[in-house]
Specification:
It is a single chain. By secondary structure, this protein is an alpha/beta fold. 51% of the residues lie in helices and 12% in strands. It has helices at 8-21, 28-45, 60-68, 112-117, 149-156, 175-181, 186-189, 202-218, 231-238, 246-251, 254-291, 301-312, 320-338, 344-362, 375-389, 396-415; strands at residues 48-54, 84-89, 94-98, 105-108, 122-127, 135-139, 162-168, 192-197, 225-228. A 9-stranded mixed β-sheet has the order 4-3-5-2-6-1-7-8-9, with helices on both faces. α1 packs antiparallel against α2, α12 runs antiparallel to α13 and α15 (375-389) packs antiparallel against α16 (396-415). The longest helix has 38 residues, at 254-291. The protein is elongated.
């Protein structure tokens, strides 16, 4: 199972930097840092974009359907002609019609024909599919061998992080395909695969070893690897009841392709994460230290009290989950700094959401000392208490919520202490 690295902590740190520098005087160096921080935050907050490209009839839409786990994109020589189609995660199915120069419109459900009738520049289809929480699929329009459609493909490839070039196995990797792909930036090539489609057809299957040998010699630095795939067989294998035919899924190339796609997406995420961490360490966080000054005088004593209590809840970092926790509550602290009249209900709800997220994370049981197994229960109790506080009025619930956050911070700090010193602390 290929794991995608978490990015929550880095995103919070980037947002903290952007918030703290938002109202500073214009400065060329600061503007450049903010631009980098915004780019990092955007990449780490969104799914990795996988582009599917190739000449007409190469089977790219069928391949995208296979990886999406749903028969959404039209396929075949007579299929509905569409612009760029993006398949991404959504809580409920919806179709968004988009243009580069005007506001989009949204249809409920999957409505590609209706969307195409609007003559959009691109279409986005939202699906509630878990895999799409990490990757988004970009189905690019097919290119022709003797026309200028490749220019549109090159323009659209700028929006993807990784790519799969689909070449028809019956006449794999023609000169027209090479002509286009050599114009793709090297950064994208190293994150791309050459998928040899229609590998299930007898003429292709019989000559596959020879074709793969040739392509592996020719690929050079154009692709990370060459992967054969019999898409219809792969779809059929996963549709078997009562469970998928995993042996068939493997032999037809489905497993290898899926794993390689997820691997290049994960590698791209790691590279983006490392770049963000480097900028945070070398530029963004040191800059915040240079502008840190005395706390601004709050207009209300209760707000000052909450600031002080939250500050006292930030013990030295002892373990990874504590660092993530402190980054999470720091976002609430920033809200308090910016506004002394924050809505109590919004503040309490934000506290509850953070505590609930960490309660679920702690249930996995692999981030704290085994002798601190009492801590998840404290977070669960705190979640219930914060929910109840939202039904109360006055200033007392806000003070109670801040105390709960401080207590939980203390508990997590204990979890990172030496094993012999870990003792339960209650109070939430």
């Amino acid at each position: 199972m290929i794991e995608f690295p978490g990015t929550e902590q880095e995103v919070r740190q980037l947002e903290r930097f952007l918030t703290a520098t938002e109202n500073l005087p214009n400065d060329t160096m600061l503007d450049e840092m903010r631009e980098r921080a915004l780019a990092h935050a955007g990449r780490l907050s969104n799914a990795v974009n996988i582009g599917f490209a190739g000449e007409f009839g190469a089977g790219k839409s069928s391949l995208a359907n296979m990886l999406a786990g749903a028969d959404i994109l039209p396929t075949g020589p007579q299929h509905l002609k569409l612009p760029l189609v993006i398949v991404a995660y959504s809580d409920t199915p919806e179709t968004t019609v988009g243009w580069w120069d005007k506001e989009p419109k949204v249809y409920s459900g999957i409505a590609l024909e209706k969307a195409a009738a609007d003559e959009p520049d691109f279409i986005s289809v939202g699906l509630n599919t878990p895999a799409l929480q990490e990757i988004s699929l970009f189905d690019l329009p097919g290119t022709g061998a003797l026309d200028d459609t490749y220019k549109e493909t090159l323009d659209l490839l700028k929006f993807v992080d990784c790519a799969i070039w689909c070449t028809n196995g019956t006449n794999a990797w023609r000169e027209t395909e090479r002509h286009l792909w050599t114009r793709v930036p090297q950064e994208l090539r190293v994150n791309s695969l050459l998928a040899v489609t229609h590998a299930d057809l007898p003429p292709v299957r019989d000559a596959l070893d020879r074709v793969l040998s040739r392509l592996n010699k020719e690929k050079g630095d154009l692709f990370r690897s060459v992967v054969p795939i019999g898409t219809p067989v792969a779809v059929r294998a996963m549709a078997q009841e009562p469970e998928p035919d995993f042996a068939l899924w493997e032999t037809c190339g489905g497993q290898d392709l899926a794993e390689q796609v997820l691997q290049i997406a994960s590698d791209r995420r790691v590279a983006d994460l490392e770049a963000a961490r480097a900028d945070l360490k070398e530029d963004f966080l040191p800059f915040l230290e240079t502008i840190a000054g005395p706390e601004p005088e709050a207009t209300q004593s209760d707000s000052m009290s909450m600031h002080a209590t939250l500050e006292s809840a930030l013990p030295p970092l002892e373990n990874p989950i504590l660092e993530d926790w402190l980054a999470a509550i720091a976002s609430i602290y920033e809200d308090l700094r910016e506004s002394s009249d924050i809505e109590p209900s919004a503040f309490l709800h934000a506290c509850q959401e953070i505590v609930e997220d960490f309660a679920e994370r702690l249930e996995q049981g692999d981030e704290i000392d085994p002798k601190a197994d009492w801590i998840p229960g404290e977070f669960e109790k705190a979640t219930d208490l914060l929910l109840l506080l939202q039904f109360e009025s006055g200033e007392a619930p806000l003070k109670d919520a801040v105390s709960i956050l401080a207590q939980l911070s203390d508990n997590l700090a204990w979890a990172g202490s030496s094993v012999d010193s870990v003792q339960p602390k209650t109070g939430t």
